[in-house]
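Box S1 | Example of a co-folding query
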Amino acid sequence: MPDCLFCKIVAREIPAQLVLEDAHAIVIKDISPKAPTHVLVVPKKHIDRLSSTDDGDAELLGRLQRTAVAAAAKLSLKDFRLVTNNGRGAGQSVDHLHYHLLGGRPMEWPPG
Ligand code: 5GP
Ligand code: ZN
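Box S1 (continued) | Returned holo structure for zinc ion
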């Protein structure tokens, strides 16, 4: 296993507040929330970032969006933002693919 924070959370070696789990992903509360609701959709498979995926990951990528929809429903979010930061310049700090699901306040556009 790579020395990876989110792999360790998936393996329950590091604790996290679990919102939802399915066959391919976990959804956890962000430790430093940027909105009243801020959770992370994390695939169980280690992939560095979105640009590291290939065509074989297409089904997983679709499923992650469906997992985000399920998490939004569970958290009673009608309006939400789903975003991934790809690379340091885009704000990525953990090198394991994840989507931020944010809601509970008005969202500005474009993000900074
Ligand atoms: P990124 O900056 O890579 O797009 O997103 C990483 C996110 O992981 C950040 O929003 C950060 O607050 C969150 N994070 C960092 N360390 C931990 C942790 O140990 N537990 C949880 N639940 N979230 C974390
Ligand atoms: Zn990982």
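The chain has one domain: 5-103. The chain is about 20% helix and 20% strand.
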